[in-house]
Amino acid sequence: MAVMAGKNGEIKIGENKVGYIDNFSINVNLGSAETSQIGKQWRDYIATCSDWSGSLSGTLDYADPAQKAVVDELLTPTDTAMTGEFKIGPALTVTGDFFITSVSITGSFADKVAVSINFQGTGELAVKSST
Q1: What is the pTM for the complete model shown?
Q2: Which of 17, 31, 51, 70 is the 20 to 30 Å CA partner of 86?
Protein backbone atom coordinates (compact mmCIF):
# COMPACT_ATOMS: atom_id res chain seq x y z
CA MET A 1 0.00 0.00 0.00
CA ALA A 2 1.32 3.46 -0.93
CA VAL A 3 -0.25 5.62 1.75
CA MET A 4 1.04 9.17 2.11
CA ALA A 5 1.55 11.28 5.21
CA GLY A 6 0.83 15.00 5.14
CA LYS A 7 4.10 15.67 6.97
CA ASN A 8 5.94 14.77 3.75
CA GLY A 9 4.24 17.53 1.76
CA GLU A 10 5.87 20.68 0.49
CA ILE A 11 4.63 23.80 -1.31
CA LYS A 12 6.73 26.02 -3.55
CA ILE A 13 5.72 29.29 -5.15
CA GLY A 14 8.08 29.93 -8.00
CA GLU A 15 11.43 28.67 -6.76
CA ASN A 16 10.74 29.39 -3.08
CA LYS A 17 9.51 26.78 -0.62
CA VAL A 18 6.71 28.24 1.51
CA GLY A 19 7.64 27.89 5.18
CA TYR A 20 5.43 27.09 8.16
CA ILE A 21 2.49 25.70 6.17
CA ASP A 22 0.61 23.00 8.06
CA ASN A 23 -2.43 22.51 5.82
CA PHE A 24 -3.20 22.70 2.13
CA SER A 25 -5.87 21.55 -0.31
CA ILE A 26 -6.20 21.28 -4.06
CA ASN A 27 -9.72 21.06 -5.50
CA VAL A 28 -10.34 19.90 -9.08
CA ASN A 29 -13.76 20.30 -10.68
CA LEU A 30 -14.99 18.77 -13.90
CA GLY A 31 -17.66 20.88 -15.54
CA SER A 32 -20.70 19.34 -17.15
CA ALA A 33 -23.51 20.38 -19.45
CA GLU A 34 -26.93 18.80 -19.49
CA THR A 35 -27.91 17.04 -22.73
CA SER A 36 -31.20 15.49 -21.59
CA GLN A 37 -34.03 14.84 -23.98
CA ILE A 38 -37.77 15.17 -23.57
CA GLY A 39 -39.38 11.78 -23.03
CA LYS A 40 -36.48 10.26 -21.07
CA GLN A 41 -36.72 9.57 -17.35
CA TRP A 42 -33.04 10.25 -16.53
CA ARG A 43 -30.90 13.32 -17.21
CA ASP A 44 -27.85 13.02 -19.47
CA TYR A 45 -24.65 15.07 -19.23
CA ILE A 46 -21.43 15.58 -21.14
CA ALA A 47 -18.10 16.58 -19.64
CA THR A 48 -16.98 20.14 -20.36
CA CYS A 49 -14.01 22.17 -19.05
CA SER A 50 -12.16 21.46 -15.82
CA ASP A 51 -10.87 23.98 -13.31
CA TRP A 52 -8.94 23.88 -10.08
CA SER A 53 -8.45 25.94 -6.95
CA GLY A 54 -7.01 25.51 -3.51
CA SER A 55 -5.92 26.89 -0.20
CA LEU A 56 -3.06 26.69 2.24
CA SER A 57 -2.66 27.80 5.82
CA GLY A 58 -0.12 27.88 8.60
CA THR A 59 1.94 30.24 10.72
CA LEU A 60 2.62 33.69 9.28
CA ASP A 61 6.30 34.30 8.58
CA TYR A 62 6.61 37.55 6.62
CA ALA A 63 10.39 37.02 6.45
CA ASP A 64 9.75 33.85 4.40
CA PRO A 65 10.21 34.93 0.73
CA ALA A 66 7.31 32.84 -0.61
CA GLN A 67 4.84 33.93 2.09
CA LYS A 68 5.92 37.56 1.65
CA ALA A 69 5.34 37.31 -2.13
CA VAL A 70 1.79 36.01 -1.58
CA VAL A 71 0.87 38.65 1.01
CA ASP A 72 2.46 41.42 -1.10
CA GLU A 73 0.61 40.17 -4.21
CA LEU A 74 -2.71 40.69 -2.48
CA LEU A 75 -1.76 44.11 -1.10
CA THR A 76 -0.61 45.32 -4.54
CA PRO A 77 -2.49 43.08 -6.99
CA THR A 78 -1.19 42.43 -10.46
CA ASP A 79 -2.53 40.42 -13.36
CA THR A 80 0.42 38.05 -13.18
CA ALA A 81 -0.18 34.42 -12.28
CA MET A 82 2.11 32.70 -9.80
CA THR A 83 3.40 29.16 -10.33
CA GLY A 84 2.87 26.66 -7.55
CA GLU A 85 4.28 23.21 -6.93
CA PHE A 86 2.44 21.05 -4.41
CA LYS A 87 4.36 17.98 -3.30
CA ILE A 88 1.72 15.69 -1.86
CA GLY A 89 4.15 12.90 -1.03
CA PRO A 90 7.42 11.39 -2.27
CA ALA A 91 5.71 9.93 -5.35
CA LEU A 92 3.15 12.64 -6.26
CA THR A 93 3.54 16.32 -7.17
CA VAL A 94 1.05 18.66 -8.90
CA THR A 95 1.98 21.99 -10.45
CA GLY A 96 0.08 24.84 -12.01
CA ASP A 97 -0.34 28.58 -12.37
CA PHE A 98 -2.76 30.44 -10.09
CA PHE A 99 -4.00 33.80 -8.91
CA ILE A 100 -4.27 34.67 -5.22
CA THR A 101 -7.94 35.36 -4.44
CA SER A 102 -7.68 36.08 -0.71
CA VAL A 103 -5.29 36.16 2.22
CA SER A 104 -6.48 36.14 5.81
CA ILE A 105 -4.15 36.94 8.70
CA THR A 106 -5.40 36.22 12.21
CA GLY A 107 -3.83 36.45 15.62
CA SER A 108 -4.71 36.43 19.27
CA PHE A 109 -2.94 37.23 22.50
CA ALA A 110 -2.15 33.63 23.46
CA ASP A 111 -1.61 32.09 20.04
CA LYS A 112 0.50 32.35 16.90
CA VAL A 113 -0.34 34.68 14.03
CA ALA A 114 -1.86 32.48 11.34
CA VAL A 115 -2.20 32.98 7.61
CA SER A 116 -4.74 31.43 5.22
CA ILE A 117 -4.35 31.81 1.47
CA ASN A 118 -6.96 30.94 -1.19
CA PHE A 119 -6.15 30.74 -4.88
CA GLN A 120 -7.75 30.06 -8.25
CA GLY A 121 -5.87 27.97 -10.77
CA THR A 122 -5.57 29.12 -14.36
CA GLY A 123 -4.87 26.61 -17.09
CA GLU A 124 -3.98 22.98 -16.69
CA LEU A 125 -2.94 21.37 -13.44
CA ALA A 126 -0.04 19.03 -14.20
CA VAL A 127 0.39 15.79 -12.26
CA LYS A 128 3.80 14.13 -11.88
CA SER A 129 3.89 10.66 -10.39
CA SER A 130 6.97 8.55 -9.81
CA THR A 131 5.13 5.26 -9.27
Answers
A1: 0.81
A2: 31
